[in-house]
Amino acid sequence: FLFRPHHVGMPKSVVAREMALKFNPDAKIVAHHGNIKDSQFGMDYFKQFSVVMNALDNVDARRHVNRLCVATEKVLVEAGTTGFLGQVYVIKRGETACYECFPKPTKKVYPICTIRSTPDKPVHCIVWAKQCFQLLFGHREASMLFEPPDGPDPSVFMPTVNAHPAVGDHKAILKYARDVLVALFNTEIRKQLAMDKYKTARFVPQPVDEALIDANCTEGAAPSLAGGASWKTQVWGAEDCIMEICQCVLEVYATAEAAGLLGSYEFDKDTSQAMRFVAAASNLRSHVFGITLQSFHDAKGVAGNIIPAIATTNAIVAGRQVTELFKILSERGTVAEVCRYTDCVRYKTRRGLLLQAAKLECPVATCFVCNQAIVDVAINTATTTLQEFVDQVLKRRLGFNEPTVMIGDGEVYAEGQDAEDFSSNLPRHLKDLPSGGMRHGTMVSVDDFSQDMEVQVCIHHEETFDPEKGAENFRVVNRRAGTASAPPPPPAQSDAVPPGNGDDDEVEEIEPMPSSSGQGQKRPRSEEKGADAAAPMPPGGGLTKAPRYSAPDSS
């Protein structure tokens, strides 16, 4: 409702301010374009506000904002959407459950942030490739990559895409495929680089060398033509991807019957040609942006599970956020008394409702964020390094931003301004760290000044992990209230919280939080099967893009 095609690539916060001022020129709005985890947006920044409205699209950022609001005791109005589903709830320290009071379900969705501009995950490239398939073979105007001829910025690839080759002329078809590849993976990238769109990016994209494209635009050399089934599990390099894309284009334009369907092709993961094109195009896109390449098999698992965002759902949920804001500012009672948890569902309930309200949950005693609970972590202290512990456990799973790690009174790792250099400890195994190391029963203090949070982590040494139950070599096995003098014995394997919460940059689907024992009331549920989760809405501080897509975990 705020963004238009010509806004693609522009900072969303800037565009939102511009459009909002058209509604109300007297409004006072300051737009910031940056990372919410930057130091400039720390606790001092949050303290100046009365209420925080969240519309973030990744778990890491949501955790960070939640912790800053808990630390500064600011009210947070949280919200999210997934397709036709949505939810809104309010968080206030000491009155309601915070974002991290309840473990997130293992099912998750991937955020598609700035697909056209700054992808940083394979799934971003897979969605881009699906849109590319639609641009070349389907209803191109519906593709998020489509650029109108009368747009404010002349397109460098649309004229090439529209220059269809003669049906059956293999030489002309290969030249068309070659020109499209150069336009999308070389010329367009160079254009974006010239506009300084990546000056603040973590990775500056590298255009595919035109000579590499020329050398591999051939017929009959695609990996899928090798026979057997091994090609489906092999990871295609840039050369393989170029050859596979050429083969797919040849198949479409080879016969009048196939070419006659141009404009009506739709992506289907079970259609070989479509899926091969998407797998190859996504890997070539990943090659440009320095992202891990995927096999055909892995790409298919993601491509078949992408859920489109619904603008109307976003608008409804945003409206409910504002309604909760009015309640908070009216000061008619505490947040827990006047605010509600709202579910937006796709189908009407037996009472004919599409929006269902319920009482907010109380804080959970075992939450390590708002109640300083203890976190039990099972890990192999003999084989896990401090680097892995910091990256995978503290940052990825527990959401710390700049952790400082202490064993007893000894500091073994620190981040942040003026922090001591402990890089020599990073390659050491946990049991070999100073101050006695981390062993079964060790209590580790983890402090994060940027989030004003300190957590006690109880280490449980565990020798082995079943690779079939997840790739992680650790488990957050329990969260408990209070301070323990000694840890419980190592938990049985069956007591593990299922792995698979995924990277913090992925958006987890957020289940409506279940009632704790003796706390709150049971939340009304939708009649729709599976209508119980919502992922966060797109952030206001990122880049605008064409319609957003979310992909549930393929597992």
Question: What does the secondary structure layout of this molecule look like, with pairings?
Answer:
Elements: H1 12-23, H2 43-47, E1 51-53, H3 59-72, E2 75-82, E3 85-91, E4 108-110, H4 122-137, H5 158-162, H6 170-194, H7 210-216, H8 238-253, H9 256-259, H10 272-289, H11 296-303, E5 307-308, H12 311-330, H13 335-338, E6 340-344, E7 355-359, E8 374-379, H14 386-397, E9 403-407, E10 410-413, E11 443-448, E12 453-461, E13 474-480, E14 507-508, E15 549-552
Parallel strand pairs: 1-2, 8-12
Antiparallel strand pairs: 2-3, 3-6, 4-14, 4-15, 5-15, 6-7, 8-13, 9-10, 9-11, 11-12
Helix pairs in contact: 4-10, 6-8, 8-10, 10-11
Would you give an account of this structure?
It contains 14 helices and 15 strands. Helix content is 30%, strand content 14%. Helix 6 packs across helix 8. With 555 residues, it is α+β, with helices and mostly antiparallel strands. The radius of gyration is 25 Å and the shape is globular. The protein has a six-stranded mixed sheet with strand order 10-9-11-12-8-13, covered by helices on one side.
Label this structure with key terms.
555 residues, 6-stranded mixed sheet, 14 helices, 5-stranded mixed sheet, alpha+beta
